Amino acid sequence: MGSGRRLRKLAVNDDTAGEAVVYLWSVRHRHRTDGPCAEVLSLTREGTTATVRLVFRGGEGRFVPDGLLPSGAVALGQGTALNLHEPGVVRAFADAAGRRGLLHGLAELDGWALFPEVAARRAADG
Asked: What residues does each domain of the chain span?
């Protein structure tokens, strides 16, 4: 039986070079003793060690899996929810981060900063 920590591949068009860039991605849950739990979406550019982690910390009006929500779910209090295990959601986060120039190097970023843009895109996609 596998560990459930497999890396998945996602090809994203690189607007600067016109080529597809492949990212390896995974979703993890992070427990904290000194604060809220978090859901973490990791994107690593294939062939490099450049990993960007989008961290979704639970807190006021921000919900992550805690026994009530399923793995990968991140939600805002007004009922907007996304599933980080869905490739389309990951693609939307990668596109949003790429447009802001955030997918280069090593970084740990607040995923909630991209959440409204991604939720709006997913709603528009239907």
From this structure: 8-125
Neighbours of 6 (CB within 10 A): 8
Question: What span, in angstroms and rounded, lies between the C-alpha atoms of 54 and 39?
Answer: 8
Among the ranges 5-9, 64-68, 98-102, which has the highest mean pLDDT value? 98-102
9-46 pLDDT per residue, tens: 998 776 566 678 899 999 999 987 787 899 999 999 99
Beta bridge partners of 107: 52
SS3 label, residue 38: strand
Strand partners, 42: 26, 53
Pairing relationship of beta strands 62-63 and 51-57 according to DSSP bridges: unpaired
Query: Which of 82, 104, 85 has the alpha carbon at shortest distance from 6?
Result: 85
What pLDDT, on a 0 to 100 scale, did the predictor assign at position 9?
Answer: 92
Instruction: Report pTM.
Output: 0.88
Pairing of strands 38-45, 19-30: antiparallel
